[in-house]
Amino acid sequence: MAKKGQGSFSNLDALESAQRSQLFDIIDKFRELNISEDISLPQLVVVGDQSSGKSSLLEGLTEISFPVASDLCTRFATQIVLRRADDDEGHVRATIVPGVDANADPETRKKLLEFQVSMTEAEFGPESFASILNTAAVYMGVPEPGDKVEGTPDKRFSNDILKIELSGRHHPHLTIVDVPGLFHNSTIYQTDEDRELIRNLIQTYIADPRTIIMAVMDGRNNLANQEVFRMARKVDPEGRRTVGIITKCDAVQPGDEAGVIQIASNQVERLRHGWYPVRNRSTKEIQEGVTIQQRHAKEKEFFKKAPWSRLSRDKTGMENLKPFLGHLLYEHVRDEFPKLVDEINRLVIETEESLSKLGISRTTPTEQRIYLTRIANEYEKIVTDCLDAKFRDYVSPNSPLKIRTHIQNMNENFAARMNTHGHTRKFKNEEENPEVEKEAPIPIPDTSEGREAQEGPWHDEEVKEEEEEEEILTDVHGNRLDHPDIYDWIRATYRESRGPELSGLINHNVVIQMFREQSAKWQSVANSHVSAVADKVSKFNAEVFNSVVSDDTVRKKLQTSLSRATGEAVTLAYRELNQLIEDEHNGILQTVNPTFGQNQKAMRQQRAFVELNKNRQAGGGLNLSDIAKSFNLSNTNTTVRDIHDILKSYYDISMTRFADNVVIQVVERHLLGKNGPIRLLKSEYVSGLDDSELRNIASEDYQSASRRRELQARLERAKSAQEAASVIPF
């Protein structure tokens, strides 16, 4: 270990390890990859007023001769990278690291990356440095450091970074970021707006918990008036990551040294890493040609003299500050490196997940077709599983995805509603309504004419149902029925529609007419059912689309593209329903169902049993005379009952047939079947789209495309950073 002050600063053992070099190189690589857009990186940042001597401090640290009047406002940060290299001559390389704004614009980024300046250290001086600063400003599109406000570009500051790399045998491993200095009064070179922009820029840097703050103060000024320290105090209240630098100690007025020494002794503003007073080249010395090496010698002699000699020798001057900063940065980077690697790994995973949610790239027709085909395949699978009621995960009972369950229940409700609301008038049920009013017993006449004359023209009592709870029956249009009782209606219709047939015979046209009127409500009941199913199908469709298409724009375009076919499918369902109504209502009445005759026979038998039970005597016997009278009906009333039984028997068969057909031919075939609204999105549909249609539906909108480019760029730099960090340097 070399003794303090012995040899040049570049011979310090603490800065020369291969591990340190490798670690700093990895961090530099991270910066080049712009990983700092996503993850903050450990860094040393120099902040202070424009007149604080910040540039002279950097001269001493980097051994770069800064341009004269360099305190004029620069409008971007400068990163100075010192690296030890096996290079006797020493080289300088200047580049621009594009910031967030430039990375969002490929053309701007490309232009900035074209900026490259290389030279030997011997060629690099104040003039060449000034030229680099000016040229970099032009590339970034901001005013040059010495430009007046009037006539300069609207863009006042840039988040791009000018990177100056110096490599040589005499350089330690050190990276410092210099941000524009604070100023307090506007001039022809800088405005009040500039002042606020610089303040915000500094705030952004120092607020980063991985930034070590090199806060610079002019020794001639009161610490309480130093804004940069107020800013540092807010973001680092315990002073854990702030290093205080006091410049221009040689310019402090005699008698004022005690106050500065007290600050430098860490007694006023306590900082974890303490304070370092330095003596820089004055403007006069620069003009007189005092070199950097001479500057170091003058500084060393200065702090040997009273009253500055009272300060701890290891806390004064560049010979102590420079190795301290190198060691501090190294320890800081080393401590943060494992966390950085973890954050980079998480960034890769999260970015890949975000890209996965966007799906594959959709730039070319092939990519767009693949994208839609995948969606269609997933859609078809979900539809099939839902129709089969197959669910891998729990699905809420009310979820639209339970389409099969919902429609099964709706079909059953439809059948029940057809039973209770499908007819215009209620049919008679002798078993439920056995009681009828009776006339006094009369002799049984020998002829039908005599029998009818004795009974009266109607003998309504024989066919009236016992009064039930009041129910107002209406026709299909909602109008109150003239004959709510079905026997009355049959009787009236029969008498109004008699043809040339003999008394007691039934005109089949009358039965057809009655059936049509009795089943007139089927249309409205079935329409309501089909409408409800179509609505349920629409909600199911929307739920599946939401599940398989994450891109809102693509989902809406797909649904719009399929809307016409969806409408046609629903129209076909209603057309099928109308055809079923047409078949049942407008054709002849026909059935081969054996229950048609069986039901009529059963109704006649039931009626006979009821009559027998009504005439059973107290002892259980039957009076044949009373039985005969019970069946002593007129031809008209007999015909009314016969028509009722025929109508009811056929109605039951036809209604069941119709309800089944609605379920199978309308709901299942047209709404759930292969050409139904929930079967339209399939691979065949995608195959049939031309390039123009594909582009219209599947191409990414500007926002999605920008998001994809952003994520791809992030993933690329994160994976590159992952690779750079794969060889852990400790």
TrEMBL record:
Coiled-coil ranges from the UniProt annotation: none
Residues of the Dynamin-type G domain: 38-338
Stored SUPFAM superfamilies: P-loop containing nucleoside triphosphate hydrolases
Metal-binding in keyword set: no
Pfam family, one: Dynamin_N
Superkingdom as given in the UniProt entry: Eukaryota
Gene Ontology biological-process annotations: endocytosis; intracellular distribution of mitochondria; mitochondrial fission; peroxisome fission
Biased composition (Basic and acidic residues): 427-440, 448-462
GO cellular component annotations of the record: membrane; microtubule; mitochondrion
InterPro entries the UniProt entry points to: Dynamin (IPR022812), Dynamin_GTPase (IPR001401), Dynamin_N (IPR045063), Dynamin_stalk (IPR000375), G_DYNAMIN_dom (IPR030381), GED_dom (IPR020850), P-loop_NTPase (IPR027417)
Keyword line: GTP-binding, Nucleotide-binding
Gene Ontology molecular function: GTP binding; GTPase activity; microtubule binding
Entry-linked Gene3D superfamilies: Dynamin, middle domain, P-loop containing nucleotide triphosphate hydrolases
Compositionally biased region (Acidic residues): 463-473
Region (Disordered): 426-473
GED domain segment(s): 640-730
Protein name as catalogued: P-loop containing nucleoside triphosphate hydrolase protein
Species, as recorded: Orbilia blumenaviensis
